[in-house]
Amino acid sequence: MGRPVALSGHELADAVASLPGWEVRDGRLHRELRFADFSRAFGFMAAAAVVAQGMDHHPDWSNSYATVTVDLTTHDAGGVTVLDVELARRMSELAVQLGAPLPGHET
Question: Is the pTM of this model over 0.90?
Answer without folding.
Answer: yes
